[in-house]
Write a structure and sequence with these properties.
By secondary structure, the chain is an alpha+beta fold. The protein contains six helices and six strands. It has a single domain, classed as Muramoyl-pentapeptide Carboxypeptidase, domain 2 (2-Layer Sandwich). Helix content is 45%, strand content 13%. A hairpin with a 5-residue loop joins strand 1 and strand 2. The radius of gyration is 20 Å and the shape is globular.
Length: 199
């Protein structure tokens, strides 16, 4: 009986340690996000107004090969497997899906915003098309920006492509969905190229 009690106590103690560790890790992450938002001039009520969840930054990532710019791209393993299956299935229907970008770190996302600010864009304009650091689905390692030959990259014209039509009909079978359709509740511009995998 004492052995059972000690075992249960150790398990509970280990579980408590994990909970405490995760709590402090999340607090550090939030402080980091707050500091970046302050430096970029992102309004404090951004998350509440946009109804966007804080996205965890993935660490367990694997390669999905190069994007159209020959940069190595990564996703979490489950999403990467789903992407490979979806791309193969599309190819079987004579549709070529190409990656523009996949995983992006919080710092990389902050760099995107900084570059736009340096070019004279206002933060309100930037946040219509780029998520604030900490709130991009790309941080999770589950999101992809896609294109197809003959389409301008990251343009609404992608909606007119056979690739987009195929995705609308088939992406759900592989766990992918369009994150920002027209008139989405997040106030984010329509992004026909942005697809995210959910378990």
């Amino acid at each position: 009986m004492l052995h059972c009690f000690c075992y249960c106590f150790q398990r509970n103690e280990a579980r408590s340690t994990i909970v405490i560790f995760n709590y402090f890790r999340q607090r550090r992450h939030l402080k980091r996000i707050d500091a970046l938002h302050e430096s970029l001039g992102i309004p404090m009520d951004y998350a509440r107004l946009r109804k966007l969840p804080l996205c965890p930054e993935a660490s367990d990532l694997c390669s999905i090969g190069p994007d159209i710019f020959e940069r190595e791209q990564r996703m979490i393993p489950q999403a990467a497997n789903a992407w490979r299956s979806m791309r193969t299935s599309a190819a079987g229907d004579h549709i070529e899906l190409q990656v523009v970008s996949a995983f992006r770190s919080v710092e990389y996302q902050a760099g995107i915003l900084r570059n736009k600010l340096e070019k004279g864009q206002r933060i309100s304009e930037i946040l219509m098309v780029s998520a604030a650091p900490g709130f991009s689905e790309h941080h999770t390692g589950c999101a992809l920006d896609l294109t197809t030959p003959g389409c301008a990259v990251l343009e609404e014209d992608f909606e007119q492509s056979k690739a987009f039509e195929w995705l609308m009909e088939n992406a759900g079978r592989f766990g992918f969905s369009l994150s920002f359709p027209r008139d989405n509740p997040h106030g984010v511009a329509f992004e026909p190229w942005h697809w995210a995998w959910k378990d």
